[in-house]
Structures are given as C-alpha cells and as structure tokens.
DNA sequence: GTCTATAAGGAGATAGAC
DNA sequence: GTCTATCTCCTTATAGAC
C-alpha cells in the first residue's frame, strides 16, 4: 500500500481488504482506522456510516463483477465450446480474488436487505436481462437442433453457478476430509474447474 | 414450546432456533433469555459461555446429520438408482429444516476453528472414512464395468454436495432475478432436486 | 436455581478543539 | 482535514443476594 495516497483512498483500500477477510460484522471501524494509521473518527468523517462505507467499497467491485456476467461469446466455436469458455470465464473471475466467493455468499446472498439492494442496482437492468435472453435463445436453439438434451437455460446457469461458487466455498476448508490437504490450492482449483466443465458438458450431451 | 419444560431445555430449544435464524454472532444471550423468559445470567449459569452453548445445541444435531451421511444403500437396485436415492436422501435431510444449509455454510464451513472442530469430532471417525471407502469402491466398480464414465468418487460427491447445498443457499434469494418469485418455494426445491438428479446421472452415463 | 446488579469491554457515531 | 474526548448502546460474563 502506498502510504502517500490520500487517507480517503487508503480507508477504502483497507476496508475492502478487511471486509473481504473478516466480513462486514467481523470488521470494526476502529480496526480499519488502526490499520490505516489514523483514528476511528476519521472513518466517519469521510463515510458517515459503516454501511455507507461498505457500499462505497463494493459498488465499483460489483460493477466489475456484473461486467463479467457478459462473457465474450466467441460465435466462431460451437455451443459446447462456448459453454466451456463461459465456465472458464466465471471461474477465472472468482479466482482473481479467492475471497470474493465467500464474500458474495456471506454478505450478499445471506443478507436479504443487501441482496435486494444488489439485485435492484445491478441485476435488474435492461442489459442484464437481455444478456440472459440471448443465452436462453442460444440454449433453446441448441436443444431444438438436438445437439444437447433439452434443458432450461435458468437451470443450466444455476447448476453452473452452484458448482463454481461451491468450489471456492466448500473446498478450501477440506471438505474432503484430508483428501485435499496434500495438494496445493492451485491444483485443487484447477482440478475442480476441469471437473465442473466435464460434469456440465457431459450432462448436456444427447444420449 | 412447552413452557413447563425445565429451563435448561428451553434455553437449548430457543438458542437452536435463534442460532439457525440469525446466526451465532447475530444472536445475543440477552435475546435468548428474553425469548425464554428468564434473565440473561441464567444462560451463563447453565452453559458458562456462549460458545459452549453453541456446541451443546448443535452436537446432537450434527450427530444426526452425520448419521445421515450413510444413506441406506439398497443393494437390490442398480448403481444409478442408488445414486438417485442418495441425492434424494441428502436433499431430504436439508429440506427437513431449510435453515440448516445456510447454517452449515455460515457457522461451520466459513469459520475455520469451528470447521476444524466439526471435522475432528465428526468426519474423521473410522466409520466415516469406511463409509466413503465403500462408496469409492462402488463407483470404481461401476466405472470398470463401463456402465458409467470414469470419475473419482470424491469429485462425484463434491459435485453432488455443491449442487444440493447451493439449492438451499443461492436460490431462495431469487438468484434468477425474478424468475422464481412467482413459484412457491416447495415447487422450486422439488424442481431443483429433480434437475440435480438429472444433471448428475446424465453426466455419468457413458456416451 | 433464579434473581439483580454490575463489571469490563467493544461497538458506531458525534462534538468540538486545533 | 485530523485529532481527542466522549456519548450511548449493547455485548458477554460474573458476584452475590435470596
């Protein structure tokens, strides 16, 4: 961290780190101040409340994540390859910062008010639903052509998100009872990514 | 609640409900006392600390969940049918109390010390690992016979747990952006259970 | 066994000096 | 803009009367 940045930015920077690591309620403004190297009153001078600080920290981050919800759809490859790319893409987003998945589940999904706010701010937009519609059309066309079995796009997306999110939530904690203690986290995640792709693709292929 | 039960049991009963609904840190001993109808000091008289109360509440519940980790394996039906039964079984366990999945993620998986404790107490036992070994042998045999594609048992289990847990975590909050607001929660869960079974089974069938 | 009272500490937030 | 001091509230936990 650059100690010469202005304090407001340093507060944002530290708050982001602590919120991600210890959660919102697990982080006190006092602690943020201590790490920043200022006093606790200054946090409130700049951001008034802790909740507002939270949104000031994560609004830009969420914008960025929502950007990612439109993965580049390379039209030159077939549907299954496109799907593989999408999975790689989402997985990659969460891999950029491994604290992101636990954060999303804990602070957004688990917290009704925050989730509503997030949903209204970022998921209800025109571009959002049209992106989903495009995906839906793509899946329906493919099913009609008989290259994949008939599935609803929403179910497919839920399965994909479930598997990817869980890879970062469940697994790091050694859900496998010692099975993945010996291998590195990187290897573990690589393995999960490939297995999830295999799972999804195999589940779609027409028998 | 039977108001005539002894207070110790009523504290356990109330604590369980509040811990499940509002999480451990979101529940104060003061609030538990208020609901029980006694004073807050009594909580500490019986359970000494809040953390000990937590384990006294959930140890029996965890015993029960771990029991369930050995689903009845009906040897008279084929492997895929057995797998369907297993998925139904796990899904049913979480459906018994829908607050259980969020609780497991929030209080156990997300909390390193608790997870270690849970793991050491309940998952590292002899019967636990031998149950997994039996499952592993079953999967390996089936793959060798060629009825399913070759998968590692641990990957299969991770995928199953990921999908089931997420069904209770992600979905209730309307991940689908309005898509599942209109249908009942029961319908939603039924749909997810069937879709997950289809997904897993389809992903296993040999091409 | 159950109570009141209170200790001891931490939280978020604000007032006001500089 | 940054500080100290403080307010108010709430937490877990304990001491001691009954």
Task: Give a nutshell description of this structure.
The structure is a homodimer of 207-residue chains. Chain A is an all-alpha fold. In chain A, 71% of the residues lie in helices and 0% in strands.
What does it look like?
2 copies of one chain form a homodimer. Chain A is mainly α and 207 residues long. Chain A has 2 domains: 57 residues, Homeodomain-like (Arc Repressor Mutant, subunit A); 138 residues, Tetracycline Repressor, domain 2, CATH 1.10.357. Chain A is elongated. Chain A starts with 6 loop residues before the first helix and ends with a helix. The mean pLDDT of chain A is 89. The structure holds a DNA duplex (18 and 18 nucleotides).
User: Into how many domains do the coordinates of chain A divide?
Assistant: 2
Under CATH, the topology of the largest domain in chain A is which?
Tetracycline Repressor, domain 2
Please report the total strand number of chain A as a whole number: 0
Radius of gyration of chain A: 20 Å
What is the multimeric organization of the chains shown? homodimer
Task: Output the helix-strand order of chain A.
Answer: HHHHHHHHHH
Helix content of chain A: over 70%
Distance between the termini of chain A: 55 Å
Which percent range describes the beta-strand content of chain A? under 5%
CATH domain class of the largest domain in chain A? Mainly Alpha
Q: Summarize the largest interface: chains and residue counts.
A: A-B, 48 and 48 residues
The CATH architecture category of the largest domain in chain A equals Orthogonal Bundle
Supply the helix-strand structural class of chain A.
mainly alpha
Task: Note poorly predicted spans of chain A.
Answer: none
Number of helices of chain A: 10
How would a textbook summarize the main sheet of chain A? Answer: none
Average pLDDT reading of chain A: 89
Dominant shape of chain A: elongated
What would CATH call the homologous superfamily of the largest domain in chain A? Tetracycline Repressor, domain 2
